[in-house]
Amino acid sequence: MIAAVICALLIDKVGRKRWYTGALLLAPVPLLALAWLGATSPIQVLVLAGLAYAIVQTVTFSLYLYSAEIYPTRLRALGTGTGSAWLRLGSSAGPILVGTVMSSMGIQYVFASFAAILIVGAIITVLFAVETKDRVLEELSP
Question: Of 18, 84, 108, 112, which is least surrounded by CB within 10 A?
Fold first, then answer.
């Protein structure tokens, strides 16, 4: 909840692309700490995974607003729907990935895998995301 409020207050000042990139690069830090520590205690997992989740959720909270800004009105439903479909696919693949990695390599590699996925997301954001800060909708999606 705190992360959502911070995001709501700051994302327009920082800019979506910079916020997303920062969050996607910051969230892997606690996950990599869990991988390095071996995730041996429930408190470690609760605190570090919870922190990573809070950071990543700031991206998730604001993506619906972002998609409304970058898709023209005639394509907005299609763009948002496609993004939601990918979200559902990721939600389905996550447990399979966790089970496979955990059974073959161990719990610490689960956290390392999620950290790697977030870093790939940050790279994709840097390369392809459109910055919407200080731009009008007509300019972004004519």
Answer: 84
